Amino acid sequence: MDFDEKPSFVLGGNAMMVKLSRFSWSPLILIILLALLSFQITSKAVYPVKIAFTSSTSKDDIMADSRTCVGFFGELPERKAVLSIRDFGGVGDGKTSNTEAFRKAMRYVHRFGERGGAQLNVPEGRWVTGSFNLTSNFTLFLEEGAVILGSQDPKEWPIIEPLPSYGRGRERLGGRHISLIHGDGLTNVVITGNNGTIDGQGKMWWELWWNRTLEHTRGHLVELMNSQDILISNLTFLNSPFWTIHPIYCRLLTPTAFIYCLVSVSLMRNLVVKDMTILAPLNAPNTDGIDPDSSTNVCIEDCYIESGDDLLAVKSGWDQYGIKMARPSSNIIIRRVSGTTPTCSGVGIGSEMSGGVHNVTIEDLHVWDSAAGVRIKTDKGRGGYIANITISNITMERVKIPIRFSSGSNDHPDERWDPKAVPVVKGVSISNVVSFNSTKAPVLEGIEDAPFDGICMKNIRLLGVVSSPSWRCEFVSGFADDVFPAPCPQLQMDISSSRCSYS
Ligand SMILES: *[C@@H]1O[C@H](CO)[C@@H](O)[C@H](O)[C@H]1NC(C)=O
Ligand SMILES: *[C@@H]1O[C@H](CO)[C@@H](O)[C@H](O)[C@H]1NC(C)=O
Ligand SMILES: *[C@@H]1O[C@H](CO)[C@@H](O)[C@H](O)[C@H]1NC(C)=O
Ligand SMILES: *[C@@H]1O[C@H](CO)[C@@H](O)[C@H](O)[C@H]1NC(C)=O
Ligand SMILES: *[C@@H]1O[C@H](CO)[C@@H](O)[C@H](O)[C@H]1NC(C)=O
Ligand SMILES: *[C@@H]1O[C@H](CO)[C@@H](O)[C@H](O)[C@H]1NC(C)=O
Ligand SMILES: *[C@@H]1O[C@H](CO)[C@@H](O)[C@H](O)[C@H]1NC(C)=O
Ligand SMILES: *[C@@H]1O[C@H](CO)[C@@H](O)[C@H](O)[C@H]1NC(C)=O
Ligand SMILES: *[C@@H]1O[C@H](CO)[C@@H](O)[C@H](O)[C@H]1NC(C)=O
User: Fold this and answer.
1) What pLDDT, on a 0 to 100 scale, did the predictor assign at position 187?
2) What count of other Cβ atoms lies within 10 Å of the Cβ of residue 450?
3) pLDDT band at residue 346 under the 50/70/90 scheme
4) CATH 3.90.245.10 fits 1-295, yes or no
């Protein structure tokens, strides 16, 4: 089939097929087609669970009461056209390249954007592919046993422009490799399935990094730019070359951009709760789990993440480029995430935060065998701010430094960074923390010319601190209440809720 010349409409990957020529839609054919389509949709259980982008319940109620963002979506959007990657010549044998099949499929389903949307199913099998771009009003559905494998040919991850808020590739000057699954300017996209897998096969890229032969910045597994109404759920992501999920400039007026790592179906339909899992070898460089970047209204829930870098890091651009772009990350909720990263942090803010980060709630985290639990990282030259961050209910085991603020990694995009651009850190509240067998008490290092202010610690129990039980604080101020071991004098034992809340 040649989808470019003769658009063919394949229904649900079965034998029924209606051929139409592109510009000669007769109204009759259209009506018949729509009738066939609705028959197809209703006769087939396409979605195991219904989630839609509109909900009758008040969004604020859901966020406040049930502590899940699932309700924001209500039901999964139904798509008029349902296709299979096989319809585009895809072969799931683990060897054949499906790059053209996926790109052809995406060009084809793009036509349904304004006509009820489309769903592309990836059946059981191993589907090797280079990068491809998603489209709006679209669902990518990985059936049980479906594995999408990232191509081992770097040319299949073409070079794209650097992000304006970074001014260059994060690792190398100039452009960067596109992500395996990419989207720009999209609305209403769902990436989900019955615990199917997207495996970036990043080893080749990590080796290029290790042996210093990487020419351009590595690609992410999934990157969505300038997009809204996104749901990523119920899948396993493996071996990303670089950061695993990177939503950037997803700025929304209504709270609708979410990543559900685990769709808490139990809260909706009383079914079994299923995890989404993000895994990379513990030594794989820069394989962050999820990095919301210059994005607003993001909800990340119920993830299990094991990787070679931060499980989660909230970012907003790099030094003068991020300052110029001034796109903050805000209104972010992260909860019920567990995992381990031996050399990095459970949850981090920064180090790139030059567009500002505010109104972030992080709760119900379980982190073990990691370098840090909660980490705020910034530097001179970053500018921007970190404000109104609320972190609570964190459990840690064998985390070297459970709470760490640091500055001064001296990691700048180029020589043009401004040493006078100091970040403002104001209003970070951390409460209800239990940590077992840490190496050190918290290390809180602010910036000399710009001390971190309004740091509030409440109900913190750091038990079995092995080597260094006294807090180390420099250029920070704030309050502490009910904290063990005793905090540094910079955090006065004089808490009052008014002094710890920032508005
Ligand atoms: C997506 O679908 C909505 C509702 O049908 C429609 O209004 C919108 O134009 C579509 N967007 C795109 C980019 O196709
Ligand atoms: C995907 O989109 C990027 C820009 O966002 C573009 O450079 C690239 O050519 C597109 N790839 C395909 C296969 O269309
Ligand atoms: C998630 O995957 C499981 C199978 O692993 C399936 O039973 C469930 O219906 C899926 N849920 C969604 C929302 O796709
Ligand atoms: C670096 O790693 C790549 C990817 O594994 C490999 O192809 C290349 O030969 C290596 N180069 C050196 C100098 O080791
Ligand atoms: C999904 O698959 C991964 C392995 O691919 C597995 O570790 C995980 O437990 C599975 N999750 C569920 C809910 O079945
Ligand atoms: C802070 O973010 C939450 C969502 O995380 C949102 O409900 C709330 O309205 C935001 N507050 C402000 C003042 O923007
Ligand atoms: C604290 O977080 C854990 C998960 O790490 C969760 O099981 C527990 O219910 C949470 N406790 C409260 C009081 O929210
Ligand atoms: C903490 O260390 C003690 C002594 O080595 C050990 O008995 C205990 O199991 C450890 N607890 C955790 C949670 O690692
Ligand atoms: C600060 O964060 C809290 C908790 O997310 C939120 O309720 C409040 O509205 C935020 N205030 C501002 C000014 O962002």
Assistant:
1) 87
2) 18
3) very high
4) no
Inform me whether the pLDDT recorded for 158 exceeds 50. yes
Q: Give the residue, by CA position, lying nearest to ligand 8 atom 6.
A: 437
- Strand, coil or helix: 424: strand
Using alpha carbons, list the distances in angstroms from residue 47 to 163, 190, 499: 35, 12, 48
Q: In the chain, where are the structural domains located?
A: 1-295, 310-503
Residue 39: pLDDT band with limits 50, 70, 90: very low
pLDDT digits (tens, 9 = 90+) for 315-335: 999 999 999 999 999 988 898
Nearest CA to ligand 2 atom 2: 133
Closest listed ligand to the CA of 300: 6
Q: Which atom of ligand 6 is nearest to the CA of 359?
A: 1
134, 179 Cβ separation under 8 angstroms: no
Q: Assess whether the region 1-295 and the region 310-503 belong to the same CATH fold.
A: yes
User: Known catalytic residue: 309?
Assistant: yes
Ligand 5 within 6 A of CB of 195 = yes
- Which atom of ligand 6 is the closest one to the Cα of 333? 5
Nearest residue to 48 via CA among 76, 69, 71, 73: 76
Q: Which CATH superfamily is domain 310-503 in?
A: Single-stranded right-handed beta-helix, Pectin lyase-like (2.160.20.10)
Q: What is the pLDDT of residues 115-124, one digit of tens each?
A: 999 999 999 9
Q: Catalytic pick from 293, 309, 319, 379?
A: 309
Which residue bears the tokens 């972190």? 391
